[in-house]
Amino acid sequence: MEIERLEEGDVTVVVVRGVIKLGESAKSFSSFLGEVLANGSNPVLVDLEGIDHVDSTGLGELVGYLQRFEEQGRRMAFINPARRLRKLFELTRLDDVFPIYDDRARAVAELTEE
């Protein structure tokens, strides 16, 4: 798994490629988001376009971090989930929990609105 952090205006963008599943990839993803949470105050946009697969452990990490960011008064959203991942979000009804965008400019604009 590859993870990259970018700053786009007042939004931290986390670009993830590969697989998020039980084991090392879930730990790496969790550690990375933990750093973003601890060392910033911006809203976070997680770019999921390069994610091939997320298992229940990966979904648990996403839900857990959404709650942690909200507890700090920060917003977290997703952009460009692959068709398979979008279907998984719909099946588990997580698409009602997570803000999901297809357009980065719109996501950045909405995440920085008061």
Number of helices: 4
- Principal-axes geometry comes out as globular
Oligomer: single chain
Radius of gyration from CA coordinates: 13 Å
Spatial strand order of the main sheet: 1-2-3-4-5
* Unreliable parts: none
Largest sheet: 5 strands, mixed
- Number of E strands: 5
Strand content: 25-35%
Strands, helices and their partners?
Elements: E1 2-8, E2 11-20, H1 24-38, E3 44-54, H2 56-71, E4 76-79, H3 83-91, E5 100-101, H4 104-111
Parallel strand pairs: 2-3, 3-4, 4-5
Antiparallel strand pairs: 1-2
Helix pairs in contact: 1-2
Name a few traits of the molecule.
114 residues, alpha/beta, 5-stranded mixed β-sheet, 5 strands
